[in-house]
Design a protein that fits this description.
- With about 260 residues, the chain is an alpha/beta fold.
- The protein has ten helices and ten strands.
- The strands form two sheets. A six-stranded mixed sheet has the order 6-7-8-3-9-10, with helices on both faces. Strands 2-1-4-5 form a four-stranded antiparallel sheet, with helices on one face.
- The longest helix has 18 residues, at about 180-195.
- Bound molecules: adenosine-5'-triphosphate and magnesium ion.
- Adenosine-5'-triphosphate (ATP) binds near residues 11, 12, 13, 40 and 41.
- Magnesium ion binds near residues 41, 42 and 170.
């Protein structure tokens, strides 16, 4: 479980990126965080894996208070959290399989990985992760030879190979075209349902959020302005989150149709 209690983050320059947030995310939930650029979405997910410390308040992840964790405890926490990035963060000059095996780094001693000696079990876990995102036939292809959508599926497989309890995805589809975005969101949703991994996804477009989220959290200037089921995120809610009414640019499929 993830629990923010009166949590605030103020950055060095004085920007209050999260302001007194109270939110609880239960194990196995699929939550999408939406909001304008600068609303605090990335800060929210980075706080969960301890990358951004709270300035005040409390944040508990899996029963552990994230503030003031020792290095070792922080490493343990991060081993349980899989990260998925907008820019995929793959190592392009090596194979898909090696990229996915990097998800095992938290669990395998470094000297083994330097020598490329992953235990057989790890290779099996990596191959099964690739199967989950239906890209196992690319295992021995160099990551540089993949399309954007394929790269993101490798990013998901790498997170899965970590066997995480939580997956955090910060704008995972922002570099992809609409059809591919849907494929990746469907993968994330399916994995959440099949494996019960708590999943938190930051998204720019509200239509994509309502299509896939069980629950939407709306942030605006660091404040939590909406927290409810995707089905309730109507035009009024949109206005509360974005401070204006909906335009074609705000929905992925319409924005793409204009291009
Ligand atoms: N390292 C930092 N130092 C100072 N200010 C920061 C830092 N990171 C973020 N901010 C500020 O904190 C606020 C929230 O930023 P955050 O990156 O969480 O927003 P976001 O919702 O993820 O935006 P985007 O949609 O553009 O990714 C913004 O005003 C941003 O400028
Ligand atoms: Mg961001």
């Amino acid at each position: 479980m993830i629990r923010f209690e009166q949590a605030s983050v103020t950055y060095g320059g004085g920007v209050r990126a999260l302001n007194d947030i109270d939110v609880e995310i239960a194990d196995g939930e699929f939550v999408v965080v939406v909001g304008l650029s600068g609303a605090g979405k990335s800060t929210f997910v980075r706080a969960i894996n301890g990358l951004v410390p709270l300035t005040s308040g409390r944040l508990e992840v899996n029963g552990v208070d994230v503030t003031g964790l020792s290095r070792r405890r922080m490493r343990d926490l991060r081993a349980d959290i899989g990260m998925i990035f907008q820019s995929f963060n793959l190592v392009n000059r090596t194979t898909v399989l090696n990229n996915v095996l990097m998800g095992r780094l938290h669990r395998v001693p470094t000297w083994r990985t330097v020598l490329g000696l992953y235990p057989r079990d790890d290779i099996e876990i990596a191959m099964r992760s690739l199967e989950r995102v239906e890209i196992v036939e690319k295992a021995y292809v160099r990551a540089s030879n993949l399309s954007g959508g394929q790269r993101q599926r490798v990013g998901i497989a790498r997170a899965l190979a970590q066997q995480p309890q939580i997956i955090l995805a910060d704008e995972p589809v922002a570099s992809l075209d609409p059809p591919t975005s849907h494929v990746v969101m469907r993968d994330l949703q399916r994995i959440n349902r099949e494996l019960g991994i708590t999943t938190i996804v930051n998204l720019h477009f509200l239509d994509l959020a309502t299509a896939y989220a069980d629950r939407i959290i709306g942030l605006r200037a660091g404040e939590l302005v909406f927290d409810g089921p995707g089905s309730e995120a109507d035009a009024n809610v949109f206005e509360r989150i974005y401070g204006r009414s909906l335009t074609a640019d705000d929905t992925m499929d319409k924005a793409a149709a204009v291009i």
